[in-house]
Amino acid sequence: MNGTQKQNAPAGPPPPEAANADTRLKGHIGHFTPEEESAFEDFKKLCIKDGSYTPRSADAEASHDDGTLIRFLRARNFNPQDAYTQFKDTEIWRKEYELDALYENIDIREYQAMRQFYPQWTGRRDKRGIPLYVYEIGKLDHKKITAYASASSKSKIKSPGLRLFALYENLTRFVMPLCSSVPGRQNPETPVDQSNNIVDISKVGLKQFWNLRVHLQEASTLATAHYPEILDRVFIIGAPSFFPVVWGWIKKWFDPITTSKIFILAQHDVLPTLSSFIKIEDIPKKYGGQLDFEYGKLPKLDPDIRQHLSIESTGDAETFFTASPIRWIDAGEMGGGREMTALSVGTLDGKQRKERVAVLHALATPVATHSSNFQSQRTETTTLPSRPATSNGQPTEQHGLLNGHATPQGGAAFIGQAPSQSHPVSNGHLTPQSRPTSIQPLGNGSPPESKPQNMTMPPRPTDMEPTKTDFFIPPSDPSGVKQLA
Question: How many CA atoms lie within 13 A of 105 on its CB side?
Fold first, then answer.
């Protein structure tokens, strides 16, 4: 390796102390130094002054939770002014591109098409409760990505780089809140606001890297600018001998804090390093662990999550829960403990969805997560499946195959057909009498090939009434809790 290659090479395995809780919790909620606490308060004051952030009041929840705010401050080394500038720019960007409305109305076929090109959640977490994602670069097809990018230009997603926004929105609206709320994790006083990523670049040639450079740069640039500090660690596996050359231009896409979290692992370092951060049963088999996970398939939810989760017993509920746009709402007080409900949103065959697919029970320590969404009405109207949820969160018996996974009986496939029966939900509203039909898979059982659909957009966020926090775990004082009538 010459001098230039040595300079370009990313770090090897992280030092052993990097896996310690004390090291990983620095700069996180519940573990501030006095100086960091002061910087956080100053940052909030700057955001309040121009209206970018509205704190909690007697009548409403905060516009953003502390977990979202602190990511911007950490990304700027606890410099309040720099963090404020980035946060304000992000809020302007979100309103300009109507990100909240896009997530609520994205066509689920388009969502599925985007999902196959980006990191995918395994359904598992590391030892600290942080979600584990896998990204197999070798599975990416440059021609399919190019074709999809061309089709995306005809959709109402006004910026090509926004094709991947759903990945980050799903992480912050669905996966992080879920991982924060499951009881039993270490340091429950600290919300989960990051992810761990295994990036597998084995069997990837220099030409493929070059062809994918725009695609990879878009993902990196969007995260750095508008979703800062969502990465805890990135473990690069299977790096070829020429990778230092590639790293020379990849590292320019990230800020210095992010690049310091990226580690390239030699083959003999893979399992020892991963197992210092992740339990062996949660590491995919191909990396020396015990998890039977395959990239491109549905997540394998870990037993601790399933223990506290009730998935609706309709045949396609688990598929919707793990493979469609999801957000959480507070379900109120149930059986002496807190609960929150997972809503499957988006549109299917031109019809908007808002269906309950799961309930998480016995929530952990009070925590809040991202909630800058706006709705056209203050109450939620959701479709409630006709059969009750299973008591242990396990899906009911299914038939057929979806990417190697069971699908509902009766022909429903990737996103299956649900009953058309209408049911009242907890807020007293009645749901529509029908919902979209199913999405059919390809003949080989793979997710459907799709082109983006034009979306019917709701009023711009500035013209809509803000609701209370989409997801929040209520405080210990019940007087401040939102109750669903």
Answer: 21
pTM: 0.74
CB atoms within 10 A of CB 60: 14
CA-nearest of 472, 388, 380 to 60 is: 472
Measured CA to CA, the distance from residue 110 to residue 453 in angstroms comes to 7
Please list, in sequence order, all residues whose beta carbon lies within 8 angstroms of the beta carbon of residue 101, skipping any fewer than 6 positions away.
Answer: 374, 457, 458, 460, 461
C-alpha 97/C-alpha 115 separation (Å) is 20
What's the per-residue H, E or C state across the chain?
A: CCHHHHHHCCECCCCHHHHCHHHHCCCCCCCCCHHHHHHHHHHHHHHHHCCCCCCCCCCCCCCCCHHHHHHHHHHCCCCHHHHHHHHHHHHHHHHHCCHHHHHHHCEHHHHHHHHCCCCEEEEEECCCCCEEEEEEHHHCCHHHHHHHHHHHCCCCCCCHHHHHHHHHHHHHHHHHHHHHHCCCCCCCCCCCCCEEEEEECCCCCHHHHHHHHHHHHHHHHHHHHHCCCCEEEEEEECCCCCHHHHHHHHHHHCCHHHHCCEEEECHHHHHHHHHHHCCHHHCEHHHCCCECCCCCCCCCCCHHHHHCEEECCCCCHHHHHHHCCEEEEEEEEECCEEEEEEEECCEECCEECCEEEEEEECCCCCCECCCCCECCCCCCCCECCCCCCCCCCCCCCCEEEECCEEECCCCCCCECCCCCCCCECCCCCECCCCCCCCECCCCCCCCCCCCCCCCCCCCCHHHCCECCCCCECCCCCHHHCCCCC
Per-residue model confidence as pLDDT tens for the chain (485 residues): 455 555 555 667 887 777 777 788 999 999 999 999 999 999 999 999 999 999 999 888 899 999 999 999 999 999 999 999 999 999 999 999 899 998 999 888 888 877 888 899 999 999 999 999 999 988 876 666 666 555 554 555 555 456 678 889 999 999 999 999 999 888 999 999 999 999 999 988 888 888 778 778 888 888 889 999 999 999 999 999 888 888 887 888 888 888 889 999 999 999 999 999 999 999 999 999 999 999 988 999 999 999 999 998 876 888 888 889 999 987 654 444 578 999 999 998 889 989 999 999 877 754 443 333 322 222 344 454 444 444 444 444 433 333 333 333 333 334 433 333 333 333 323 233 333 333 344 444 444 444 443 433 333 333 333 333 333 333 333 333 233 22
> What's the rounded Cα separation, in Å, for the pair 481 and 404?
42
User: In terms of Cα–Cα distance, which of 250, 245, 235, 253 is closest to 205?
Assistant: 245
